[in-house]
Amino acid sequence: MTAALARGRALPRSALPRHSRDLPHRVVGLDVARALAVFGMLGAHVGAVPDDVGVAPSTWLGVVNGRSSILFAVLAGISVALLSGRPAPVGGDDLVRARVRILVRAAWVFAIGGALEALGTGIDVILGVYAVLFVLALPFLRWPPRRLLLAAGVLAVLTPPAELLLTQLVVATDAYDTPFVSLAVTGAYPALIWWTFILVGLAVGRCELTSTRVRATLLAAGAGLAVAGYGGGWLTTQWFAAGRPVTWPAEDTYRPEQSDPVLLTGAFPHSGTTFEVVGSVGVALVVIAVCLVVADRLPTLLFPLAAVGSMALTAYAGGIVAAWVTGAPDYATNRAWLVYVLTTIAAATVWRLLLGRGPMERLLTWSSQRAAGRGAPVPSTRSAHSTEADRADTLGRRAVGDPGRNAAIRIGAGDPLHPQAGARSTS
Questions:
Q1: Which tens digits make up the pLDDT trace of 6-41?
Q2: Residue (of 307, 392, 87, 79) closest to 211 by Cα position
Q3: Does the CA dihedral 130-135-138-140 come out positive or negative?
């Protein structure tokens, strides 16, 4: 995969072709993918969806379980790459500023996640682990894609059994429910295993995402990983688990306390096996590749989804708050999920047209830039390749009859939580 994506090494910025240096303020396809991830996660939390996806059409909504949150984590890695130079990692003072901005974002995301957890909705909020993953990515910002993917592969193989052993250790020491252990090992999103996803995203973000060849490689590699992961999970279930997948996450938020090697088989959502990791990464890569292609061809149609993705943190937090206000869902229908999706699309579209960035995204941008200084780690100039994102915003404004120039300037700005390729430091 990396041979086609980046030739295994990072290029100096001066050696990049002009269209790689002059990039749009937003990559609309990534915004669309973020919207799908947010909607999928909320569907898994409040919708009447099956525990997993199968052959029967009645199970197909189960695709959101596990895979949506992993897509969100892979996209986090891409965001980190975009913030720190995209194909050509920044160095020197620019690297220091990029790391400071990432740390400030991580701190805010962690704090917001803690506040959402305090609402007591019973929803497993991903933001705490999301923040930890930002920090775990910092030592790897200068790594080329080949090394990043190699590290991710090693982690995918070694962390599931390591997590199982560590779980026994923390049970023996009566530390199973402590906050740090929950974030790192025993929680619904154990950072030890999820480390793989942000490194994969960082590798993808170091590639030229406007390239047709890269997109085709992402699609082919993703399909291959999905088949290998879920196929391997099915085979190990047949061989070692009497054909019955390990489904403990459906009944228990936390990792199992017993040390049974059968827990390393299968690919059930949130099981944390190597097969689930590989298969879910494959699905994420396919979704990202498809979103990149479709968004280039249908920018006007996808503008509402892109608006949601451009303020993914606000949209996700809004869904948790909505669940708190309305009370615990009955999980009997998907009505609450549908209402959330439609309301969020409408609200995000109007907000993006009139005000630009989402409210939480504004906070993260302002505070991280204040902490790091206003210097731009990734300089940008306009080019012909800027037109796709601009066209999406322009056509979106025309669709609702808002041709205002001030709105156009705000909409064209980069996103604070998910900085896009070529975004200026003042965005």
A1: 444 444 444 433 433 333 467 999 999 999 999 999
A2: 87
A3: negative
